[in-house]
From TrEMBL:
Enzyme nomenclature, EC number: 3.2.1.31
Keyword Manganese belongs to the record: no
Domain Glycosyl hydrolases family 2 sugar binding: 39-223
InterPro entries: Beta-gal/glucu_dom_sf (IPR036156), Galactose-bd-like_sf (IPR008979), GH (IPR017853), Glyco_hydro_2 (IPR006101), Glyco_hydro_2_AS (IPR023232), Glyco_hydro_2_cat (IPR006103), Glyco_hydro_2_CS (IPR023230), Glyco_hydro_2_N (IPR006104)
Keyword Glycoprotein: yes
UniProt keyword list: Glycoprotein, Glycosidase, Hydrolase, Lysosome, Signal
Organism expressing this protein natively: Erinaceus europaeus (Western European hedgehog)
Activity regulation description: Inhibited by L-aspartic acid.
Subunit structure: Homotetramer.
Similarity comment: Belongs to the glycosyl hydrolase 2 family.
Enzyme class: hydrolase
Signal peptide interval: 1-22
A single GO molecular function term of this UniProt record: beta-glucuronidase activity
This protein's name: Beta-glucuronidase
Length: 651
């Protein structure tokens, strides 16, 4: 159970300041400031998939040494985007192995001539394993498809007469039992059935393994002495907001730091000096989830100024971090935000749409947030991997609460519970906490989804993983999402909140809506009796083909999806008065999966289609979520005005 933060700040502090030490350096979101510039490299890149039998021709012929067009034909490939669905070539859609991206970037002279400028290349996400060269020189390697990595390339771009640089990124989407998510390559040797060298990739998760450069790639600058990382932890002492900060500096040992906390009117409300301290904000505006308060999602700005005295003048670096002052705590039966009970009424999502696959896209992002508002949703889980940073930034601004999930989905093979896998999982949690620790919207970490948590090594695995995550961030509860039997599960002992997925009358007792209430009530009672922890129904739903109708309801029709939801809601309404603290529908929208006999052009459990149009269940859920929002609303007037608008977010 998480104690209220203010009281234990003194004991938690030392733990927190260890945060980030295991990984080299910080991972601040690249923001422009008087001392920093950024240059997006989005657009068309040159591209080639390595179709050679061993997939290693690109390395054997060193494709990174010269422009890619010189070693063979290239395609135009949009970044960000998955490479799978933009082409007409079936071989590329299902390609497994190395693909090569390349792009030339022209650099401003002040970047290449001034040795006091630090030039950094940052890749938002490369799925799964990436190698990076600049002007033919290997500069970076990263494993894991959903978190950013970056590298200082100043020396390379400042060493010659060139005013441009050539960036080559090789990306391998091969999954193994030790990657997150795991997968295996299945080789077929029966030559009467398969061509020589034939193999396929099998995965243990229910979404398509889209691959490529999924998020923005960019260059940015800082001074040579710079603000490398900032950690902010907020707490409350009566009506005084406490902003505990620590700033990490690189490139100099002798520096001065000033920090200013500005309110939304740009008025300085607190200031401090030094790399670490506490700002006190009397009468603080708290960060509240949307609809819980008349001023939801209030964000202060923490302006950090670094000054390094030098013989010839001084160097300054500026970075501004949005800060929401809020607390999170968990009791035996409640989830508390700012000391008030919070009920998650929201969705599970995917970063998935149309031909862009998992590629980041602003119009899609804004549409999805407008749909969340239309629905009256106050929260979502980032099933089943960390989403783009821009998504979390909008959640901070709009007050949408996030359960931030790692890519630990499909951990079902015994090898995936090995200590090799565990080490990688610990590293992924470090990268994730390092990237997302300062978002007020993130209220809980989910380390995994539907692992085989009844296997014997699962106990040690989750004990270690959850303890490590709590060391990295002592301020947020930690969970994983289970679909195991309550008696057999070996990991739930270590979580703060129990997240349970179940699909009564779908995967079991198919077509039998009449068993849902009994089975769901037993599910909740069994888990609560065993553990006395709050419970979230983290998935439930039914496959539904938009436009299919039948009365009485049959599986796959819009009527059946509505009825499943209604049956669940009857029990949820009883148990939320006791210890159930949330419900997240599976899924927000239809999404692509592997081709199998039980998926018709993907998973159709969305309440919206993949094109973001509502099925009947969306209207049912909208009614319910607005009712739930009304119940928890602080000021009815706020709700009223929001109901009138009910579509666009306004701030
Ligand atoms: C990359 O892809 C190839 C071909 O699928 C595979 O054999 C290899 O293990 C992968 N390598 C890495 C480092 O991921
Ligand atoms: C991982 O290492 C720990 C500590 O050495 C050991 O107790 C555990 O059995 C190992 N797990 C597996 C699956 O080998
Ligand atoms: C929510 O409250 C508002 C304002 O009181 C009301 O107009 C609206 O109908 C309510 N919505 C639901 C679904 O109860």
């Amino acid at each position: 159970m998480l104690p209220a933060l203010a009281a234990t700040w003194a004991t938690l502090g030392p733990l927190l300041w260890g945060c980030g030490l295991a990984l080299q350096g910080g991972m601040l979101y690249p923001r422009e400031s008087p001392s920093r510039e950024r240059k997006e490299l989005d657009g068309l890149w040159s591209f080639r998939a390595d179709f050679s039998e061993n997939r290693r021709q690109g390395f054997e012929q060193q494709w990174y040494r010269a422009p890619l067009r010189e070693s063979g034909p290239t395609l135009d490939m949009p970044v960000p985007s998955s490479f799978n669905d933009v082409g007409q070539d079936a071989r590329l859609r299902g390609f497994v192995g190395w693909v090569w991206y390349e792009r030339q970037a022209a650099l401003p002279q002040r970047w290449t001539q001034d040795p006091g400028t630090r030039v950094v290349l940052r890749v938002g996400s490369a799925h799964y394993h990436a190698l990076v060269w600049v002007n033919g020189v290997h500069v970076a390697e990263h494993e894991g498809g959903h978190l950013p990595f970056e590298v200082d390339i100043s020396k390379l771009v400042q060493s010659g007469p060139l005013s441009s640089c050539r960036i080559t990124i090789a990306v391998n989407n091969t999954l193994t039992p030790n990657t997150l998510p795991p997968g295996i390559i299945l080789h077929q040797s029966d030559t009467s059935k398969y061509p020589k060298g034939y193999f396929v990739q099998n995965t243990y998760f229910d979404f398509f393994n889209y691959a490529g450069l999924h998020r923005p790639v960019l260059l940015y600058t800082t001074p040579s002495a710079y603000i490398d990382d900032i950690t902010v932890i907020t707490a409350l002492d009566q009506d005084i907001g406490l902003v505990n900060y620590q700033v990490f500096v690189q490139g100099s040992e002798h520096f001065e730091l000033e920090v200013f906390l500005l309110d939304e009117d740009s008025k300085v409300v607190a200031k401090g000096t030094g790399g670490r301290g506490q700002l006190r904000v009397p009468g603080a505006h708290l960060w509240w989830p949307y609809l819980m308060h008349e001023r939801p999602a209030y964000l202060y700005s923490l302006e950090v100024k670094l000054t390094v005295p030098m013989a010839a003048g001084s160097i300054s670096d500026f970075y501004t971090l949005p800060v929401g002052i809020r607390t999170v705590a968990v009791t035996e039966s409640q989830f508390l935000i700012n000391g008030k009970p919070f009920y998650f009424h929201g969705v599970n999502k995917h970063e998935d749409a149309d031909i862009r696959g998992k590629g980041f896209d602003w119009p899609l992002l804004v549409k999805d947030f407008n749909l969340l508002r239309w629905l009256g949703a106050n929260s979502f889980r980032t099933s089943h991997y960390p989403y783009a940073e821009e998504v979390l930034q909008l959640c901070d601004r709009y007050g949408i609460v996030v359960i931030n999930e790692s890519p630990g989905v499909g951990i079902v093979l015994p090898q995936s519970f090995s200590n090799v896998s565990l080490q990688h999982h610990l590293q992924v949690m470090e990268e994730m906490v390092r990237r997302d620790k300062n978002h007020p919207a993130v209220v809980m970490w989910s380390v995994a989804n539907e692992p085989m948590s009844s296997l014997q090594p699962a106990g040690y695995y989750f004990k270690t993983l959850i303890a490590h995550t709590k060391d990295l961030d002592p301020t947020r509860p930690v969970t994983f999402v289970t679909n195991s039997n309550y008696e057999a599960d070996l990991g739930v002992l270590y979580v703060d909140v129990i997240c349970v997925n179940s699909y009564y009358s779908w995967y079991h007792d198919s077509g039998h809506l009449e068993v849902i209430q009994l089975q769901l009530a037993s599910q909740f009672e069994n888990w609560y009796r065993t553990y006395q922890k709050p419970i979230i129904q983290s998935e439930y739903g039914a496959e539904t083909i938009a436009g299919f109708h039948h009365d009485p309801p049959l599986m796959f029709t819009e009527e059946y999806q509505k009825d499943v939801l209604e049956q669940y809601h009857l029990i949820l309404d009883q148990k939320r008065k006791e210890y159930v603290v949330g419900e997240l529908i599976w899924n927000f929208a239809d999404f692509m999966t592997d081709q199998t006999i039980y998926r018709v052009l993907g998973n159709k459990k969305g309440i919206f289609t993949r094109q973001r149009q509502p099925k009947s269940a969306a209207f049912l859920l909208r009614d319910r979520y607005w009712k739930l929002a009304n119940e928890s609303a602080y000021h009815q007037s706020v709700v009223k005005s929001q109901c009138l608008e009910n579509s666009l977010f306004t701030l």
